[in-house]
Please model this.
Amino acid sequence: MSYSSKSNFALQYTLGDVLTVKDGVRCYPATDRENGNRYIAKVHSFPAKPSTTEAFLLSGAFPNIEKVNAYYREQARELCKQAAILNALSHTEYFSHFSACQTEPKNDLGYDVWLLSPYKRSLYTILNKVKLSREDIIELGIHLCRGLTQCREAGFIYVGLKPQNIFLSAKGEFQIGDVGFVPISSLPYATLPKRYSTIYAPPECQDLFSVISNNTDVYSVGVLLYQLLTGGKQPESIKKLPDSVDKELSTVTMQACAPTPAKRWSHPRDLEQALTDCRKLR
Model:
């Protein structure tokens, strides 16, 4: 791995073998050498790969290496701002927090941003072992909608929702625990960052030149509900739910992940109410 010889993380924490590597982001199990507490260390590298720098220079996007490095530094700062937003929202029960965020220059060019989180099981891990009941799925959907509403009230829309970013707290509640915040004020012209172009992002946002829709978060919850109602595996596409899913919950879920923004719920609060109504039916 690449870090400065003065890395505080490297000195304070023992890192295990890398868990995942994707798009310049590496995740490691980390143990505090002083007290033995366990964490997950997520390292975002800017640039994600060395060839990026050469491409910037050859294309003329930046005139020299100093300007390229300044761009990487700004990317690192923006990520730290994202971490600060998550921590500000963690005073609610719907978001977890980062225990630490640290930017470190690489030995050659660019920066690593270390994000440290207390070790918790993710929804992704849980789905590999158990199948949630109808009641549990509805409760999770309601809880996520309330969190996304809190996020909107703080001035942001969350675009990073997926099982890997949802964690089980010590109190047994699921919480959003990673970056992915976009200012609502920027929606008329903001495009979805490439790292969030997953199946949980709506079709209209997959185009690199399309702006983020104002109910992107609703779509993400819809796909997640769809996934949970079809056995827990990430769906390759969204089709009709199986007949084993009751009509009311099926209708709510399919409206949430409708391919056309105008046909979806416009706000997480609306989806929350629809799920609450489904809960009352049983």
Q: What stands out?
A: The longest strand covers residues 38-46. The chain has eight helices and ten strands. The mean pLDDT is 92.
